Amino acid sequence: MKARILLGLAPLTLYLVAFTLVPVASTFVLSLSAPGDGITLEHFRRIAGHYQFGQAVVNTLGITAIGLSLELGLGLVAALALTSRPAGRKVFQVLLLVPLGVPTIVAAAMMRTVFGTVGYLNEILLRLGIIRTPVDWVGPRGLALVTVAVADAWKVTPLVLLILLAGLGTIPAELYEAARTDGASRWRQFAAITLPLLKPALTMALIVRGVDAFRIFALPLALAGRGLPVLSTYAYVEYLEYGNPHTAAASSVILLAMILIAVGTYLKLAGPEEVLR
Amino acid sequence: MSRAATLLLAVLAFWAVGPLYLLLKVSLSPPVEVMTAHPTLLPHGITLEHWGRLLETGQVLPPLVKSLLTAGLVAVAALLLAAPAAYSLARLRERWRYGILLGLFLFRMLPEVSIALPVAVVFLRWGLLDTVAGLGLAHLTLVLPVAAWVLTTAFLAIPREIEEAAALDGCSAWQTLTRVTLRLAVPGLTVAGLLAWLFSWEEFVLATYLTLGAKTMPLQVYYYLYQGNWFLTAAAATLMTAPVLLLTGFLQRHLQAISLAGAGR
Amino acid sequence: MSVRLRNWWLFALAIALGPSLAAAAPATLTVTMRLAEAEWQVIRQDVLPAFEGACGCRVRAIDVPPEALTQRLKAMRAGGRMEIDLFAQDNMRLQELVEAGLVPPLEETEVRMEPAVLPALAAAGVMGGRRYFLPFRPNVQIAYYNAKKFDAYGLAPPRSWDALLKVARAFAEKEGIGRVLFKGVGGAPTTTQLYEWIVSGGGDPFDFAHPGTVATFRFLQELAPFLSPDSRRAKWDTTNDALAQESAYLAQNWPFGVPLLVRDYGKREIRTYSGWAGPEREAHVIGGDVLGIPAGAPNRGLALRLIRHLQSREVQAVLASRLGWPTIRADAAGAVEPWLRPHVAAVQEAMGHGVFRANVPYWAEYERIASEAVERILWRNEKVPDMLPALAAKLAGLRQGRR
């Protein structure tokens, strides 16, 4: 039995070791290497000194936090709504999954035409009389973070929805029946049955999305330019525009560390056993 | 409750589809309706000139084909690699499973710009520039963690008792696997395959480094976005979204099973 | 049955491995450039076929953005396979190619510079006394304005800083939002614009303590409240979007926007002129592309022939007449299409006030400092006397070779 397990894991593991460890290791090495041989923390020191780096860290955390809340919230609400068998469920399911298939760059371009100063959102609000002068959605920092988070949530909520739908599908119907016969209210059923049993799916959604949320790249770049740096765009600019692979690698390592800390903290808090059945 | 759910879903669906409608509309609109401080929301004039220009360039068919081939390859390969691994992972002790699944994500935790260069160098050495196989291999690396995780969850959801019952009924190990387990895992396999396909379809950072002359569809759209005009971009982007809608629609049946299972409330 | 199956796999494998299995075919020359779609059409239809006929070879022309070229060449060199024979690269991104050893210097015999090529442009490819690149196209930014909006408010396109400030203020007051664009995205676009503003203000772009430079930053500070918020993300492409969608009525940009705005988008009310003068003079940075052959290029001989073709009188005339490009030769004048003529005139006038960006080894760091200065003044509202001295000191340190 053990042999079969190892055999099953073998192709995947070999492949990933070959293609994963090498780039990760080489990025690590690059972030610590000095001209000639030697180890140096100079690159880390340098980026810590850049005023844009601090901004990038804060912005990344902000967008991730707001975005994840939106995605998980909306995803959960939509998943619950779909499983309650409303009219037109099939149609809604297809429509709600559509943004998943829109490529990130296309989504970024579309969001630019929606949230621009002469964009569609301002146009709608102007026509409805809600605003009188166009709003700069990506000007003030706080608003920009929300706008980018919303634009990102547009594209990725379907993924969360899929994962949560699958999770909801694993909850046995009998549990709900039993609760109903016991006279439990809808809310009670949700809190006592759905939420706890959905924890593994929520965790998967959180981790899968969380890792990608920290890496957000195309949307902030397209919507707000360099005025709203995030860690990925910071690494990009270091690498491609300033031609410095070392500081780019250093910022990537920091991003990696942030993600590991975030994921680790979540798992510690949520209790690993319950969360990863 | 059902009416509230329908209303909510309608609003969300509107939000989900709205920007895509705008994209399609732009691709069919005369410039005067779009290139203004007050763009029109509903189509007033329809023109096919942008689509005509796009197809005339002859630059869309090859990328479309290449992207289709690559995404298909990635989806199939992801399932072939991840399914056995997920099956095994589902039978491991929790801590091991936990560790391995998280470890798989290590690669994904780096921004693409950092991994693109080392990956590109290796692939160039192997002569995989501009090839479907090369790009597919690179995409696989980013797709396998999610596929493995989704499939592990899917296999975990299949109660051991069913497999044991099948064995008791006289099924061989292979028969149990194909007739029982895999059939029950179809929704999970569909989701994993679909996610793999979608990821490969829209990936463009690695594609930038691993292609020179043979662009993929996202690269072509990216090119129009920065160096073409907005109408060509909208048309190309709509073209790029069409196969996705078709695929999702086609796989609806299998995704249905997921929500049906939880519909006993 | 098993034989057929085996063949099927081979077939699929062949498709998947594609081009790398290509057998002996006519020599294929791979050239990369970064051009707008309208420009590519002319290159592909009018320029390359003549060369293919003459050399009996195939030319594979590929679009590669300037910031990606260095990394691509590095990747190819590390992978042991140089796939690119010739590239056209932004003349502001040459330092990194030479420093990384990606481009070998050209031999004397290879460089038969035609006498008709303008000397100033010919000099652009020389570094440290050796020639690495050959001129291809000069480029310069012009000012675009929305004539309809200017007329509606009875304003004229500004020709001086005072006029610019007046116009910016007028639009901002009348519409409640700024309508004049400054490329404030940071990096190369911002630095280029800042550079020419400083020169026209009588300052030294590399000395932030120079009175002319300080005066330029002070002017920028005065202008800041009246700038369009889109300036934050304005670069070469978003500037065109802003002009097209009328969120900006006045902006400086490279001329490639002309076919896009006037022909593709039908915005005939968008006009161009050379721009405005600062207190000292009118100045516009001359950018453009040069041609280079990477180390290890498989078809070096053919590449050199293509360079000569691209520099020839016929081709430069085609580029001038179809795209309105300024030419590198004094003897190539094409009959410019009528709709393009006023814009070409604007470009020629701007070229007349052209300045070359000095080729300093610390340009990347300089861009960072310049971008920071612009961001802090424009978006963080910091006062010039407060924030500039520190940056000036940093820049001075850079000049003396300390990093």
- How many beta strands in the DSSP annotation of chain C? 11
Largest sheet of chain C: 6 strands, mixed
How many helices of chain C in DSSP terms?
16
Helical content of chain A (DSSP H or I, runs of 4+): over 70%
Total discrete domains of chain A: 2
CATH fold naming of the largest domain in chain C: D-Maltodextrin-Binding Protein, domain 2
Q: How would you state the average pLDDT of chain A, rounded?
A: 84
Write down the CATH topology of the largest domain in chain A. Answer: MetI-like fold
Largest interface (CB within 8 Å) is between: A-B, 111 and 103 residues
Mean pLDDT of chain C: 89
Specify the CATH class of the largest domain in chain C: Alpha Beta
Q: State the name of the first-level CATH class of the largest domain in chain A.
A: Mainly Alpha
Radius of gyration of chain A, in angstroms, nearest whole number: 22 Å
CATH homologous superfamily grouping of the largest domain in chain C: Periplasmic binding protein-like II
Categorize the overall geometry of chain A.
globular
Spatial extent as radius of gyration of chain C: 24 Å
Question: Approximately how much helix is present in the residues of chain C?
Answer: 40-55%
What percentage of the residues of chain A does DSSP assign to strands (E)?
A: under 5%
Summary of the model, kept short:
The complex is a heterotrimer of chains A (277), B (265) and C (403). Chain B has 13 helices and no strands.
Task: Lay out the secondary structure.
The complex is a heterotrimer of chains A (277), B (265) and C (403).
Chain A: H1 2-32, H2 42-49, H3 51-83, H4 89-97, H5 104-115, H6 120-128, H7 141-169, H8 173-181, H9 186-214, H10 218-224, H11 231-241, H12 245-270, H13 272-275
Helix pairs in contact in A: 1-12, 2-12, 3-7, 3-9, 5-10, 7-9, 7-10, 9-12, 11-12
Chain B: H1 2-28, H2 31-34, H3 49-56, H4 61-90, H5 94-104, H6 112-125, H7 132-156, H8 160-168, H9 173-184, H10 186-202, H11 205-210, H12 217-227, H13 230-261
Helix pairs in contact in B: 1-13, 3-13, 4-7, 4-10, 4-12, 7-10, 8-9, 10-13, 12-13
Chain C: H1 2-17, E1 28-33, H2 37-55, E2 58-63, H3 66-78, E3 86-90, H4 95-99, H5 119-122, E4 126-127, E5 130-131, E6 134-140, E7 142-146, H6 147-152, H7 161-175, H8 187-200, H9 211-223, H10 236-244, E8 250-253, H11 257-264, E9 270-273, E10 284-292, H12 300-311, H13 313-323, H14 341-352, E11 354-355, H15 363-378, H16 384-399
